[in-house]
């Protein structure tokens, strides 16, 4: 439940900045630990002991990570990431284009990489999507997907198995 809430809040936070964004990474930390170890950061985020005692704060707090190495493929960037022990999970928000299953048979076999991306980008059935995928060290995963054609908080899809490959890649950032 805590991860679901965190991922949906992260997706809504990113959505407030519109479309055509770079990938954005968030560390997930227990809110109670943040109150103890980073009181100034907690205060800046509006998290107080009083709010925690009344149940008015989330279990997990997301902290956006700056300085992502976006000049390399996503899998390489994730392969180099290391999280400190205080980070219990992470979430990544990326935008992409998807085709419906009915269009997959039309994909030319000889296309890959940038050429495939261009082909998909020109396909009349493509959907622009924003995917927020979060994982916890224990293997728990959650995703939220927003279609540009249905750009509303009420239309965001969520579930644990919506983006399995990206969830696996994020879990890999916690392996030692």
What does this structure look like?
It comes from Catenulispora yoronensis. InterPro entries: PPA1309-like (IPR047681). By secondary structure, the protein is α+β, with helices and mostly antiparallel strands. It has one domain. It is 35% helix and 24% strand. The protein contains eight helices and six strands, in the order αβαααβαβααβββα. It has helices at 2-15, 31-37, 39-44, 49-53, 74-79, 101-104, 113-122, 164-172; strands at 24-30, 60-65, 89-98, 127-136, 141-147, 157-159. The chain has a six-stranded antiparallel beta sheet. Strand 4 (127-136) and strand 5 (141-147) form a beta hairpin. The radius of gyration is 18 Å and the shape is globular.
List the main descriptive attributes of the protein structure presented here:
8 helices, 176 residues, 24% strand, single chain, alpha+beta, globular
Largest sheet: spatial strand order: 2-1-3-4-5-6
Q: What percentage of the residues does DSSP assign to strands (E)?
A: 15-25%
By oligomeric state, this entry counts as: single chain
The outline comes out as globular
Mean pLDDT: 85
Distance between the ends = 26 Å
Give the helices and strands, then pairings.
Blueprint: H1 2-15, E1 24-30, H2 31-37, H3 39-44, H4 49-53, E2 60-65, H5 74-79, E3 89-98, H6 101-104, H7 113-122, E4 127-136, E5 141-147, E6 157-159, H8 164-172
Antiparallel strand pairs: 1-2, 1-3, 3-4, 4-5, 5-6
């Amino acid at each position: 439940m805590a991860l679901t809430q965190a991922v949906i809040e992260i997706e809504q936070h990113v959505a407030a900045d519109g479309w055509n964004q770079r990938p954005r990474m968030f560390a997930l930390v227990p809110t109670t630990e943040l109150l103890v170890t980073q009181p100034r950061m907690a205060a800046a985020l509006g998290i107080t002991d009083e709010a925690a005692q009344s149940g008015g704060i989330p279990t997990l707090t997301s902290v956006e990570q700056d300085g992502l190495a976006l000049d390399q493929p996503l899998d390489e960037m994730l392969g180099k990431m290391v999280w400190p022990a205080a980070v219990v999970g992470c979430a990544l928000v990326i935008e992409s284009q998807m085709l419906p299953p009915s269009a997959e048979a039309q994909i030319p076999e000889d296309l890959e990489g940038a050429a495939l991306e261009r082909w998909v980008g020109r396909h009349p059935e493509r959907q622009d999507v924003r995917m927020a995928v979060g994982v916890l060290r224990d293997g728990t995963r959650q995703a939220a997907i927003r279609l540009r054609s249905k750009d509303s908080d009420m239309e965001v899809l969520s579930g644990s198995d919506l983006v399995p490959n990206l969830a696996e890649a994020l879990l890999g950032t916690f392996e030692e």
